[in-house]
Write a structure and sequence with these properties.
The complex is a heterodimer. By secondary structure, chain A is mainly beta. Chain A contains 3 helices and 19 strands. By secondary structure, chain B is an alpha/beta fold. The chains are: A mainly beta, B alpha/beta. Chain A: This is OB-fold domain-containing protein.
Chain lengths: 321, 388
């Protein structure tokens, strides 16, 4: 959470979503990335006879399957560029550099990469550049550390045939995807959370259908109107339906088996979800009357336990399953 | 002006498996698309537009698939659209494609949906640790299991019905070469003895995690006339949505599902679905959803769906075969699963379903749903052109 908000103020907090994703490469990208590991740049010949670098699996004009790999030179010509005066983390070079499109000798398309140059005055369209290979290469586009200026004349004998076969080919990699943003639950949920801190559950009533939403979202999804009237519900409620969880979820601290239930708090018009404790898992039933059990550090009740009241009649909660 | 009749003239699927490490995602979709073209005896140049669907971006970490996959799907110089409706996406993608033909915007449309669950983080993608919110305590099955218990309470169904569905679908899958699960030694006893994961849902009553793609070529009346094999004709198609959570939401039989099927039957002129429909491919990710959806889709009275299952009506040789392909319980490439239902319905009325063909199927329903019972998509296909 950010700085302590004023009492009742809307909350906000950073939210980072980051997962690793596996990618299988298929035959063409496998050959291209394995080639980089071996300091070999491969392109693919299209149905029209042009050479695309990086190579693609399917012809952008005819949709034909492309498998005719060729090797192109490690040097080429800048076709256009833009100066990057302030590199950010994760970019190819830590010092200012030029983004360049380089047409490698033997290729008909240009590859995007970074050019290590002292300043924008040292960069021009048509200049000759060559690959600076990374010291440690793993079969990734970053095996090309960057490009650097050179005086090599354009090579005449490119492209050259290549089988695309290497020992120990790279067949896949793991790429992280990351989103980072600020999450703001809004006025209604913030009010709900502030009340929870006082161990009270406060929903909002729709002015049109009169249903009480817990947690409130500031609007009734059925009527499409804003809600404002606050209504305290619970603390007791009824188990409307449930399941017995027998497999441990990733990162879950709870020992199995346990009961995961839908609980309609008294006065609420839809059920919320919670764990049932204080009773053997195989004795939990629909209609069981429960109350929240709080811990000192929890934002939400740790679990719900039986109140000892008689079970609720099915007709009283059958619309709240 | 009347709508152009829409025909399915080509169907292609991958052989769905746990992991396709040998192909890129482009290679996977290409395989299904090429098979659909081959079935229709058409080439890439015959296609006017491409409509593609997949599960939510963070399932596979693949943003903008329409951009990455345009080359593989021959979309250069043509319109390509992406459709986005969670687990129902395969169905709604096919309907968007069908509507482009019905509206005479395009004459021949390639539609495709896919998923590489082996390269996904489906569970994480589903339950993000959102600040201030109570974490989901039970995983995907834990979301569904309480609704199954609610159905059992409401209908009084005996607790064996879920196992009967799984046993039937896994046996049907043995007749479908594209199905992921081929459990040759399946028995009802084995299903009943499988571990109870989220009581009342057993392990064998849950869907697998699959890699796969499904494609169809849709054409207008002229395209259907040139089709080398019998086409399937679209007699009705509809989509409906409702919020995931609202006061009065019926998770056992959602209003949006009832409305969606009623719209499809109205378009197709069907008064008695149970009698007039010969086969159904229904999105059943957990076995108990078969009886639940039979009621939701109007094949049975409320509380009676399980009787169709129990009496064998939904078996391959029954009166209303449900999921002759083996269904989602036997192959679940999530993004593609809805389109597989639509495509399998088309195969049935084309008489092209092979070993799992329902004899004499003339009208079949394809059904998809997703997003916490939020989105529904369905179509009804027949062996004759629509007469209305």
């Amino acid at each position: 959470m950010t700085a302590t908000p004023a009492p009742g103020a809307p909350l906000s907090a950073p939210l980072v979503v980051e997962f690793p994703f596996t990618r299988s490469l298929g035959p063409v990208q496998s050959a291209f990335l394995t080639g980089l590991r071996e300091r070999t740049v491969l392109g693919v010949r299209t149905d029209a006879g042009t050479v695309l670098v990086p190579p693609v699996e399917y012809d952008p004009e005819t949709a034909g399957e492309l498998r005719d790999l060729v090797r192109v030179a490690p040097a080429g010509t800048v076709t256009t560029w833009a100066w990057n005066p302030a590199p950010t983390s994760g970019q190819p070079l830590p010092t200012p550099f030029a983004w360049v499109l380089v047409r490698l000798d033997g290729a008909d398309s240009a590859l995007l990469h970074a050019l290590d140059a002292p300043g924008p005055d040292a960069v021009r369209t048509g200049m000759r550049v060559r690959i600076r290979w990374a010291g440690r290469r793993s079969g990734a586009i970053t095996d090309i550390a960057c490009f650097e200026p050179c005086r090599d004349a354009p090579g005449e004998d490119w492209p050259r045939p290549h089988s695309g076969r290497f020992d120990d080919p790279v067949t896949g990699f793991v790429a992280p995807a990351r989103l980072e943003y600020t999450y703001a639950p809004g006025r209604a949920q913030s009010a709900y959370l502030h009340a929870l801190a006082e161990r009270r559950t406060v929903g909002e009533r729709c002015p049109s259908c009169r249903k009480v939403y817990v947690p409130p979202r500031g609007a009734c999804p059925t009527c499409g109107v804003a809600t404002a009237e606050q209504v305290e519900v619970g603390p007791r409620g009824t188990v409307t339906t449930f399941c017995i969880v027998n497999i441990k979820a990733k990162n879950a601290a709870i020992e199995v088996p346990y009961v995961y239930a839908h609980i309609a708090l008294d006065g609420a018009d839809l059920a919320l979800h919670g764990r049932i404790g204080g009773i053997p898992y195989d004795r939990v039933r629909m209609g069981l009357r429960v109350e929240p059990v709080w811990t000192d550090d929890g934002r939400y009740p740790d679990h719900y336990r039986p109140t000892g009241e008689p079970d609720a009649d099915y007709d009283t909660y059958k619309e709240l399953l | 002006m009347s709508r152009e009749p829409v025909a399915v003239v080509g169907v292609g699927q991958t052989r769905h498996v746990a992991a396709r490490r040998d192909v890129s995602i482009a290679g996977l979709v290409r395989e299904a698309a090429a098979r659909a073209l081959e079935d229709a005896e058409l080439t890439w140049t015959d296609i006017d537009a491409v409509v593609i669907g997949k599960a939510p971006d963070f399932f596979e970490g693949l943003m903008m698939p329409e951009l990455y996959l345009a080359d593989a799907l021959g979309a250069v110089g043509k319109p390509i659209l992406r459709v986005h409706t969670a687990g129902s996406v395969g169905g709604s993608t096919a309907l968007v494609a069908a509507n482009l033909v019905a509206a005479r915007v395009h004459r021949t449309v390639l539609t495709l949906a896919f998923e590489k669950q082996s390269e996904s983080n489906a569970m994480w993608g589903l339950s993000l640790p959102v600040p201030f919110q109570q974490p989901l305590l039970a995983g995907a099955g834990g979301f569904f299991a309480p609704h199954v218990r609610a159905y059992m309470r409401r209908s009084g169904a005996p607790d064996t019905v879920g196992a009967l569905v799984a046993y039937k679908d896994r046996r049907n899958a043995l007749k479908n070469p594209c199905a992921h699960l081929h459990e040759n030694d399946i028995t009802l006893e084995k299903v009943m003895a499988s571990p109870m994961l989220w009581d009342p849902i057993r392990y064998s009553e849950t869907c697998p995690s699959s890699d796969g793609a499904c494609a169809m070529v849709l054409a207008d009346r002229a395209g259907a006339a040139r089709s080398p094999r019998p086409p399937a004709w679209v007699h009705g198609g509809a989509m409906r949505s409702e919020p995931t959570m609202f006061a009065g939401k019926d998770f056992v039989s959602p209003q949006a599902g009832r409305d969606c099927s009623a719209d499809v039957y109205r378009q197709a002129g069907i008064a008695e679905p149970r009698r007039e429909i010969d086969a159904a491919e229904i999105y059943v990710p957990f076995s108990w959803y078969e009886p639940m959806w039979l009621e939701n889709l109007g094949f049975a009275e409320v509380g009676e769906g399980w009787k169709l299952t129990e009496s064998g009506v939904t078996e391959l040789d029954g009166d209303l075969p449900v999921n002759p392909s083996g269904g989602v319980l036997s192959a679940n490439p999530i993004g593609a699963s809805g389109m597989i239902r639509f495509a399998e319905a088309a195969l049935q009325v084309r008489g092209q379903a092979g070993e799992h063909q329902v004899d004499g199927a003339r009208r079949a329903l394809g059904h998809a749903y997703g997003g916490g019972s939020q989105f529904f998509a369905m179509w009804l296909v027949g062996d004759r052109p629509p007469d209305r």
